[in-house]
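Try it yourself: sequence plus nicotinamide-adenine-dinucleotide, in.
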Amino acid sequence: MTPLRLGVIGLGRAFMLMRATFLLDGRVRLTAAADPRPAAREAFLAEFGGRAHDTAEALVDDPDVEAVYIATPHQFHEAQVLAALAAGKPVLVEKPMALDLAAARRMAEAAERAGLPLIVGHSHSFDAPYLLARSLIGTPGVGRLHAITALNFTDYLYRPRRPEELDTAQGGGVVFGQAPHQVEVVRLLGGGRVRSVRAMTARPDPKRPTEGLYAAFLTFEDGAFATLTYSGMGHFDTDAWMGWGGELGQAKDPEAHGAARAALARFATPEAEAAFKETRTYGAAPLPAPEPPSRHNHFGPVIASCDHADLLPDPLGVAVHGDLERRHIAAPLRPAPRAEVIDELLAAIRDGRPPLHSARWSVATMEVVLGILASAAEGREIRMADQVGLP
Ligand SMILES: NC(=O)c1ccc[n+]([C@@H]2O[C@H](COP(=O)([O-])OP(=O)(O)OC[C@H]3O[C@@H](n4cnc5c(N)ncnc54)[C@H](O)[C@@H]3O)[C@@H](O)[C@H]2O)c1
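Structure, out:
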């Protein structure tokens, strides 16, 4: 099989998290990139070769680009997805798909009209342990799913940000930034069709005036239900309950408590914080060669409660706590992290198989994410109307 020739738009943090996948998974080759930052383009050419463009328009028209990965800030996703589809290219676009439901629907409709795959991710519902847990639901000894409990406590709000990333209206805060992952994991396990959302959010820190916390109660059309809690407040870290394996499969240092808040305290102004963020992006400094993963990516503790077992996905697989026995099923590690994203891209583009993380699946996720904000603002349960099940 010839490698998929992928062009990337946006060489920032999200790209850095996919970089190891592109360097270690031989099924894909980065042939071009677009970014307005010259340092990012130079780093790309040194690492991947190919061509570097300064605009998204030039990248989508590049004849050596077979499919486009869009990893720019949320507000650019719609226009860039529409441009790539218009150029006849399948698309992988980062989460969240868009800032509002109308834009997400327009993106899905454009993909359908063009007859091209539009996949949204990486989100953590691509991670092998969640896919394994999903495949166990309904099997003998596990049975029907009734409830899901999902928790994640991180330092998300205290990572270096530009001002718009702390403004909910522009897609900032933990609901836009992190709920897409947690909602996707929960929808994957629950079969996809959410009936209603009731949620509360909090903005505990006036210096970071966006959501730092949420809790949501979801009901599914088949009667199952889920509770989701997320804190980005940088206090407790739920990776303590994941064997100190981090979200990206990395080993975490339990002694690093408070590091994110301490680092931020050095910056007196939003401009200084944004400038610091720039020193950590792609092209700012040489990066080490990636190593094959020793753990899977994950998104915090999740418990799927079924007739005869609780399923707990973890960085190595799934712990099955059954009626009488407890066992662990390994999810085999792959040579590249997030190889599941490439699996889905190739299956859709080369074999014509409908992707799990399709545009319609992601519109449904956005409906739940936006439902969290709406429920919290309006103090009521929100009924869902755009939900789809698993393919
Ligand atoms: N899946 C994940 O784990 C994950 C992680 C981080 C971010 N994300 C998502 O990825 C997206 C990007 O976030 P980020 O943190 O990487 O942002 P970032 O600011 O770190 O990087 C964005 C990059 O896009 C470039 N850019 C800006 N405008 C552009 C344009 N018009 N054309 C081409 N390039 C342009 C910037 O120069 C920068 O290099 C967001 O939607 C975010 O939610 C996903």
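One thing you can check immediately is this: The pocket of nicotinamide-adenine-dinucleotide is lined by residues 9-14, 17, 34-37, 40, 56, 71-74, 76, 94-95, 122, 177, 281 (CB under 6 Å).
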